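Structure tokens please, single chain.
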Amino acid sequence: MAKLRAARADEAGELSALVLRSKAYWGYDAGFLAGCAEELRVRADEVGTRRIVVAEDADGTVRGLASLEGDAAGPTSRLGLLFVDPAVIGRGVGRLLYRDVLRRAVALGARRLLIDSDPHAAGFYRAMGAVPGPGAPRGLVRFEVAPVPLADWARAWTGGGPSVHVGNVAEFNAQFGDPSLDREQRAAHHYACLAAFYGPRPAALVLPLAVSPGWARLVGRQLEWGEVEVYDALAQTGPGLSDAVRSRPALAARLTQGAPVLVPWGLTEPFGRLSGRPWRARDLRYESKSAAHALFGRILAAGGHPGIRLPGQWRAAGRRQAVRLLSARVARGESSVLKSEHGVGGSGTTYASPERVRAAGGVRTLVRGLPRGPLLVEEYVSGPAGADGPGDLTYDGFVDGAGRVHTVGGAVMDVVDGGYRGATVGPGVVPAAARGPLSRFGAAVGRELAEAGYRGWFDVDFVVDGAGLLAPTETNLRLTGPSAAFMVAARLDALRGAGHLVRIVDRVELGARLPVAQADELCADLARGCAALGAVFVPAIPTGAGDPAPWLGVLVAAHGREALDAAEALVRAEARGIGKALGLDAPDGPPSGPGWAADADGSASAERSGMWFSPRSRRPRRVCG
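Here you go.
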């Protein structure tokens, strides 16, 4: 890897020659290059004022240079030069120099970076996240970037540095004895892959299932993490990830002694033992939907939240009472939502309109088919008829160790029939009229959580009613899918300039079950395809590719809605067509053959090769992004 340093005045001639060699790489003739020579010359007395930095090899050979020009006190800076020796083009030198220019622009306080690119280099700047802009000189292509540091909330979340991410999703779910939750926790183990995005930059990932080294490399490359340690396959048959780590003393010591911050999906007693943090079950009491509803009511009773209204909710002591409550509402022509006390991603939630109740064969039949456990009957909140605006919003924030509430932002969720399918974050996503009420109420919930002793991430989910009012429905005291999108947005903004829209899609159906190598190849192809659209593709959940109904969880990001939508459409189309493209069918049973091995329960998992460490390994795979 090349190293950066400030250029010296006595290198001016050498740098001028490198610039011309780099320009000639694009096939320009001698006459054209001669005409450019004076304009591209690096003069000794300008090396300092143009803020020129060079990239050099380990032996001191200069391989590239970049300049950051403009008034130090002004809001606009300019990338004047960025040239790489043709001998190392394609080896990351240009990327290294470009990212350094952005960091230096942030340090200068520049809010706008202008780039006038050779047409042949336009693809590079587009891939780096620069946005086409107006006003280019003749023969060049104008790009603009809005340099920003890592968001304040992201620095506060992890202290500004790398963190250790513990994917204890199943462990978190298992502490709530609600039968609506998946007892096998297989789906929860898949979602533990989101540990890659528990913070803007991980030092290590701790995962229950085996993951592909190719997946980790691609994610690290897309988000420019550098080296990340991956400890996987630690708890494939049960929810106890934290205890699985503690049962390996050397691994536990490596992760906890003098290490970066440990970040879990959610707080649990086993994680408390692993991390040494105090654990109190009562701190999670507002994970209960009825307790959260009561909390919302107390906040609204105190006043100060116009634009918020609380839907009615009734707790059924048993199935008979649930039938009576729902029957009375159906008789009045009212729609309801039936909820379990706890649930994830819409599990245990059923929409019950009079029409749906009749189609199900009556109230008793509908209730009989629901998961066992406490039931809540809640007023169904319908949005404006024919409205194009979003109907499901969420507020994300966290309470830090000192009890301070940090607002992260608002997101628009994709919810169908009460089931969460994904979310979009970024500037302008939440309608302007909803931003104030959403942020004020979410922060008020955070203050109540802090007063109750909770420390960590939380969200508040809302539905929008027919008058445009926000109706809070639940709070989640853990990380979530939208939180992963916020982390990726913060990272990409710092790397590529402000203004990213990020969409997380929980499940993208695949046209065939894929062994590890082919899943990695698909993801690499999708990354290239999205880059051509001006978007970023990040595979979020790769382990579902071998399920009987195969799927991927994905993140896509772009600076504009059109590119974001195009990237999602491309991902879905390519994923659906993968079976035909590879000549594969989706068999009735588990997949078999090279790249697959049968688990003890008969399901299929990726076969472990020499690139994988065993679940008992105390050493990680090191993945360089």
